[in-house]
Predict the 3D structure of the following.
Amino acid sequence: MSASEPDASVSIVTFDSADCLRELIASLRAQIGVTFEVHLVDNASRDAEAARRHVEGAPFVDATWNTENVGYGRAHNQNLSRFRGRYVLLLNPDVRFGPDLLARLVAFLDAHLDVAIVGPRIVEGSSRREFPPRRFYPGEGMVALERGFDRREIAWLNGCCLMIRRPVLAALGGFDPDYFLYAEDPDLCLRARRAGHRIGWCPTAEAIHEHQQSQTGSSADERSRRLFRGVSIFWEKHYRPADVRRMMRFQSWSCGLLLATGPALRALAHRWPALEPARIRGRRDICREWMARHTMRPAALTDLPVSIALRQVTLLRHWLVRRRPPLDDY
């Protein structure tokens, strides 16, 4: 590594992910064409001792061992003042990539000065399902944050592997610490765009995301609740309070209706994973808890927000005409 300013600072946050570290460190050792430094923060993992053994064999990794789990974004933020690279690669431990990943992402940002954040092509899980760039934010199925359905600008990228300009990350204050896990990536991208920056995508670089390796001991319902809790925080931060109340009410009602269909819902989930019963239960439960905290009574059919109902009709019409979903948010 160069003693001068490296091309990139790699930031990794681990939690119960020791089994992933051997391959991740091997992927980093193999990088060519760039200089970089590596900062790792372990969030009080139960397998921290095993993780330490992997890190001890990689002296180029600067490691911090937290005594409590402070959350994904907060752990990345711990090293904000220590990053020296021109760019910062925010990385999950369960990501694998070829020897040119860093070089391709660095070259992309060098060539596109108007872009602040870039990500590679992401394929996820054992099925290697692609996670493409999103052009809509979570919740826009109910309330639009931006106009139109034919958007060209990228809204956000999968946060498992993101490279961002260090001055931009510093100006944004890193990840919003209010998120513990999930939805901090669309939040970061949205704040960057609102600050005048663009989001880019480099499909010639590819990363394989094994997906949720730190949560193998959690049930599907627990994972879904964590996911939707992050999404609900995103709603509260970026939608008007009156709209959030309408969104919570609509989700509570619609999720209850979907769950009542039983076998029909399970059949649909084979084609659309977002309709898996565990994910729908997570949405319903988090919404109901939010409504209880805000002294809102359970949603009835007569309480459905007209504006959201009309948007559903518009989305359905677009779907039928184009024969594909008009939105890509979850």
